[in-house]
Specification:
Radius of gyration: 19 Å
Number of domains: 2
Number of strands: 9
Strand order of the largest sheet: 1-9-2-7
Order of helices and strands: EEEEEEEEEHH
Largest sheet: 4 strands, antiparallel
InterPro entries: Cupin_8, JmjC_dom
Number of helices: 2
CATH superfamily of the largest domain: Cupin
Domain JmjC: 1-131
Protein name: TYW5 isoform 5
Pfam family, one: Cupin_8
CATH class of the largest domain: Mainly Beta
CATH topology of the largest domain: Jelly Rolls
Helix content: 10-25%
Structural class: alpha+beta
Length: 179
């Protein structure tokens, strides 16, 4: 089975009614298998990340059903996909898709994660797809150093060069494919 990655099962958890997780992505594809109980799952495309008010890997918007639009006005631009899971249902959650899981009643769910990128792309200590790929982590560290360097400039210059960097990143790294 060279080049293939075996799935890693994880008990999603025994969850009480109205338990809700943060809105966050995982770096591995996964199947959410609802064994007992009911859950509501809300998904957002990775392309909507700019509207989700990310702090680290999680959204600052905690109540996605009734967000504070005065505080998070762009959140309304994010397109949500929603489904309900009951015992026996299985949901495929693609890698990088933001998801929020709300338990509507006591239940048990199981996640099965699998790596679809070459194994060297993943943090070797990350069993469940919670850590960024190693190249993304290195890039974030380099960006942090670049921002620290820009902080040495007066505000007007810092703003100009930061905007230039953003345009450069958009030109070189953003996908040219649209949904």
């Amino acid at each position: 089975m060279a080049g293939q990655h075996l799935p890693v099962p994880r008990l999603e958890g025994v969850s009480r009614e109205q338990f809700m997780q943060h809105l966050y992505p995982q770096v591995m594809d996964n199947l959410l298998i609802q064994v007992t109980g009911k859950k509501r799952v809300v998904l957002f495309s990775p392309r909507d990340a700019q509207y989700l008010y990310l702090k680290g890997t999680k959204s600052e918007v905690l109540n996605i059903d009734n967000p504070d639009l005065a505080k998070y006005p762009l959140f309304s631009k994010a397109r949500r996909y929603e489904c309900s899971l009951e015992a026996g249902d299985v949901l495929f959650i693609p890698a990088l898709w933001f998801h929020n899981v709300i338990s509507e009643e006591f239940g048990v769910g199981v996640n099965i994660f699998w790596k679809h990128l070459p194994s060297e792309c993943y943090d070797k200590t990350d069993t469940y797809g919670n850590k960024d790929p190693t190249a993304a982590s290195r890039a974030a560290q380099i960006l942090d150093r670049a921002l620290k360097t820009l902080a040495e400039l007066p505000e007007e210059y810092r703003d100009f060069y930061a905007r230039r960097m953003v345009l450069h990143i958009q030109d070189k790294a953003y996908s040219k494919n649209s949904e």
